Structures are given as structure tokens and as C-alpha cells.
Amino acid sequence: MGTARVVFDRWDGRYAERMANVRSSAVRDLFAAASRPDIISFSGGMPAVDHVPAEAAAMAAHDAIMHERECALQYGSSEGRPEIRSIITELMAENGIRLSPDDIVVTAGAQQALDLLAKTFLDPGDVIITEGPTYVGALQAFSAYEPDIRCIPMDDDGMRIDQLEAELRKLGPRGAKFIYTIPNFQNPAGVTLSAERRRRLLELAREYDILVIEDDPYGRLRFEGGHVKPLRALDDEVIYLGTFSKIFAPGLRLGWMVAPKPIRAKVLLAKQAADLCGSAFAQVTAERYFMGTRWRRVLQGLSRTYAERRDAMLEALDEHFPAEARWTHPEGGFFVWVEFPSFLDTGQLLAEAVEHGVTFVPGDGFFPDGRSGRNCMRLAFCYAQPESISEGIRRLAEVIEDRLELYRAFIAAGAIPAPEVA
Length: 422
Ligand SMILES: Cc1ncc(COP(=O)(O)O)c(C=O)c1O
Hints:
Structural class: alpha/beta
Bound molecules: pyridoxal-5'-phosphate
Oligomer: single chain
């Protein structure tokens, strides 16, 4: 992405080979620029934590220490406290997933669950299937275990199941270790897997005897359209990942995994090696918050805020972005995915965009090969205020327009072929 800086590293040659496959996350790299007050950030998927009532959060943390100090400040069980697991059970039941607290392992965010699953399942060269583009953090977690990642493209209804089927046919039964999917308001594409495709995906997974990992951080952030049943509600063998990051606060680093019993046992072994147990303090704080406050109303308010920001972004895109661009229309979540003609490399626009006071994430970071998606960008609408969103999109459109004008001139001169119009 952009200009590569070569940094001398005197420990070069001593790192494990697998680390060569792990690329830095463009989102994390942009964190410093995105935090500058003069920059309008469309890069990080940062929840609007200013909407979490400070008194309620403070009270929960205070009570955790004052009333449950012996637990909150102590080591806990690796699977997590029964109390938080029973709250998770209730949250999941509202989504049509019936569980017992024993089905759940509490993790340090869904991110840890991804890492633990990779550690538990992947040997070098193992095939796994993901959507393309997919979540950068999943690519990072998986890549350290050196899998062969096959990406299935998406359209407005999520993963193209015909292409999944074609891939599975090539691979044969048990030809992949797992299929990783983000069915709701996908990160980065913003699209949702349709009910019909969910059923078909599960049928194929059964037919080819391949595990399914359903990562669902945004499922409760639907602004419009009907609820679509989670994969786990349709099939008990699906591994489901949830998180408190988007319904409370990512600062707690609290998420969960639902998995069949034998898989849970293996994951717990991996988790004990990673951290012995999760933060008891974070768990007690979350318990207090979810038992004692009007968290539902807070979440509704958050959803409304994100919906307004989504609307502001779609309106601004309509107004300012060039006719050559196409973008998704998410019904929830945090992200819009924009695609440009293949000659535009969004990575080359980033430095200029930052100079103009706006950031985005170039599309290639969301693909394991680092080449696909160069003509795409992810725009996060979750964090900026609506007025800033309009202004940010206007600034970004200027940067893009400059570049496109150059290409249009090349095309007019016949120096490069005109793109096909869909
Ligand atoms: C698809 C997806 N999975 C997992 C995560 C990680 O979430 P957590 O904060 O629970 O680790 C994110 C965070 O943005 C995400 O978008």
C-alpha cells in the first residue's frame, strides 16, 4: 500500500517462516492518521462509544470491584463466567439460537476466537474458504497458520453460492478445513447473505463435510429489511462468533464462541495456552451493564445513529462520486464497498486523500493475495458525523476525479482500452 519503507531489522532470518505470510492490517496502519482531528476518517470500523452512557459504564465497572472484587480481580475459568454465558444465551435466544451456557466459550473479542480456531484447525497448506473480500483481522489470524485461502466472490446477496459449489466440487469431500463467512452486513462489503443462500451454503457444507464459521459482529445493527436467521439457528454444527464490541464497547475486549462440544474442548486448550482465562473484570463489568441498564435503548439509539450516517454516506456518494463508480447499499453494519474501473488503483490515492483530510481503506488489504481489489475501497460510515461524512466524500471525490480525468484522457487517446460498461 503506497510507498513501501525498507526498515533494517537485525533479527531478520530468525523469525518463524509463517510470520512472512502475515501482513500488517491497513486499517491498523491508518490508525494514527485517522486519529488526527483534521482528518475525516472512513478507515476504521470504530463503534460510536460516545453513545454508551458514561455513568452506566462507570457504575458497572465500579460495582464489579466494589461488589464482586474477589471474582473481578481474580483469575477465572477458561470458558468464562457462568453469569456472562447465561446473558449471552439470552442474547442468542433473541436471534433464534437456543443454547445452554455450556455451549459458549467467552473470548477476548471475536478476534481471539478467530485466532484460536486457526490455531486449532490449520496446518500449513490446508485449504480454507472465505468471502472475497473478507475481514482483514481474519486474514491476519488465519495467515499465521499458513493456509491456502480460496476466496469466493459476492454480489448483493452475499457469497456467490454457485461459485462456492464449483470450488467445493474441485476440492471434494473434506477438501477444505472450513468455510468462514460474515453473513450480516459483511466486513468490508456491507452485503447480507440471503436466506435462500444460507440454506444452500449449509446443505453444501453438509454434503462436503466441511465446518462453517459464522462471524456475526453486526447482526444486531440492522437499520431496515427483515431479520435473516443466523446459520447457527439452522444448523447446530455451525461455529458462531459473537461480540460485545458493537453492542457495548470494544474496549472491554469481550466476545464469544459457540461450538460443538469436542471443538470447544480443543479450543479451550488453545485458549489456556494463549491467556489462561479471559478478563474476569471485563466479564463482571459487562454482566452489570447488561443486567442493570437500559442497554436495549442505548443499542436502538446507536442503530439510529449508524443509519443516519449510512444515509449521509449514500447520499454523498450519489452526489459526488463519479459515474464510473459502483457501491453497495448496506441494510446495517458499518461499511460501504466501492468499486472503480480496473485501471484505478486506490492504494495510490491514499496519500493524496490524507493530504485532502480524508482516509479510507484500499481494497487489496481485504484479499489474501494482496493484488485483488486494487480498484476498490472500503468506506466506514460508523464513526464520523453526518456533516463530516458529506464533506469527507466530497474531498475524496475530488481526489478520485483528478485521477479519473487523467485516465479518461488516456482512454480518449486510445492509450488504454475503455472499460466495459456493466
Ligand atoms: C467481521 C469481524 N469479525 C471480528 C471482528 C473483531 O471484533 P472484536 O472486537 O470482537 O474482536 C470484527 C471487528 O471489526 C469484524 O468486523
